[in-house]
Design goal:
about 250 residues; mainly beta; Immunoglobulin-like; 4-stranded antiparallel β-sheet; elongated
């Protein structure tokens, strides 16, 4: 490990410490080797009932996130991560593949719509990305938090998450991606649906029929419940009316 690399690593830690002091949040950066080798391509759509994503460049993805703080205080994302390192393995030469990348976590910086830096943190993660073949990169998936509960997101604002993932190749090289930017609109109650047949006829106005306090016996199919309640998909008011005022009547708080 050369002196130049050590100086770059030290400079990254000093800059990170300065930003953490300004924001009051501790950040744990990774080591940058070549930002073009590892990259974040997209935030994948996660759909019920399987709630499983595939490391496929053709998979459905989101251009923007939507987080309902009436239902959740966390926004998590399934990141599609690409690996453009050149393959090194060879069966003929009995040489193992060292360009595979084990993902270890992400650095996240949150900014306002005006660009003001609001919050920074590091989060552990896991995933694995094989190198590509020919001119096509290989892909893997890592799920990570983009908005943590301690951020206390406010409804009516747009937050931009700037994300870098980091990991280590099987050859022992620490590696970090470039920046990936993802806007998230924050609302309250916007992801609750109020079907006509969910209106309780015994009460004045629209009052959603409540199921059990734990969401059971709500009349809502498990296949229709979002994989992440409160982000990017509607939930039927009957699923949460028993315990959440946001779900009882349109415009409820």
């Amino acid at each position: 490990m050369g002196r130049g690399y050590l100086m770059r690593l030290l400079r990254k830690h000093v800059l990170a410490a300065g930003f953490a002091a300004a924001t009051g949040v501790v950040s744990a950066p990774g080591c940058a080797e070549n930002e073009s080798s590892l990259f974040v391509r997209a935030v994948l759509v996660v759909e019920p009932p399987e709630c499983v994503v595939k490391s496929d460049a053709g998979a459905a993805f989101l251009l923007q996130g939507l987080m309902d703080v009436g239902l959740t205080d966390v926004y998590s994302a399934a990141l599609l991560v690409g690996n453009q390192l050149v393959r090194r393995g060879s069966r003929d030469q009995l040489r193992t593949e060292t360009s595979r990348i084990s993902l270890r976590g992400a650095e996240v910086h949150l900014a306002s719509a005006e660009g003001a830096q609001l919050f920074a943190f590091s989060v552990d993660g896991s995933g694995f990305v094989d190198p590509g073949s020919s001119d096509e990169p290989g892909y893997g998936v890592m799920t990570t938090t983009l908005i943590p509960p301690e951020f206390s997101a406010r409804a009516g604002t747009t937050i931009t998450a700037r994300v870098r993932v980091y990991g280590r190749t099987l050859g022992g090289t620490e590696i970090e991606s470039g920046d990936f930017w993802f806007p998230i609109y924050i609302c309250r109650g916007c992801l609750v649906s109020f079907p006509l047949d969910a209106d309780d006829p015994a009460q004045d106005g629209y009052q959603c029929i409540a199921g059990a306090a734990d969401g059971a016996e709500s009349g809502v199919s498990e296949d229709d419940i979002p994989c992440h309640i409160g982000q990017d998909a509607y939930v039927d008011c009957r699923w949460c009316a028993a315990w959440n005022p946001v779900c009882r009547t349109p415009g409820g708080t």
